[in-house]
Design goal:
about 150 residues, alpha+beta, eight-stranded antiparallel barrel, 2 helices, 8 strands, globular
Length: about 150
């Protein structure tokens, strides 16, 4: 009777170690499931909800009409389907414009990089796999502008 009980306990321990991936040369069952989910990558659905945003834009050094640096603070709202709403306040060298809104479309590829289009402004976007943070950089020639965003 003792041998049966000890055998069952030993089998349970080995099975438990195997499932957790602690048995050498064995692929963990739970770890395999978790790794598969992490490898799925991103899509437009990765970005969904409200994100706090800050940003900056500067005039290139060779611009014939330089302007003050512009700074931005606001909220990006992603719908998880490729549409985006922006609400922000901006400062143009101390001249404040409040509660500006804009609409945009966005893509996000499996490597968590993508594209955002605001009317005629083009941006590259990079997001974390968990969709909690991201970064935009404007890609139109002659522009210097960035935005960061983070889910509160």
């Amino acid at each position: 009777m003792k041998r049966i009980a000890i055998g069952l306990i030993a089998t349970g321990v080995v099975l438990g170690l195997f499932v957790l991936g602690l048995v050498p040369n064995k692929k963990p069952l739970l770890g395999g499931v978790l790794s598969a989910r992490a490898d799925e990558g991103c899509s437009v659905a990765t970005l969904e909800g409200d994100y706090l945003m800050t940003g900056r834009a500067d005039t290139p050094a060779d611009d014939p009409q330089p302007t003050f640096p512009r700074v931005f603070a606001g909220v990006f709202t992603f719908d998880g389907n490729g549409n985006m709403l922006v609400l922000h306040t901006r400062s143009d060298g101390g001249v404040i414009t409040q509660h500006q809104t804009a609409r945009a479309t966005y893509t996000l590829d499996s490597d968590c990089s993508g594209h955002v289009t605001f009317l005629t402004n083009e941006w590259d976007v990079y997001a974390t796999r968990d969709g909690k943070k991201g970064y935009l950089i404007r890609t139109d020639d002659g522009t210097i502008a960035t935005r960061t965003f983070e889910k509160p």
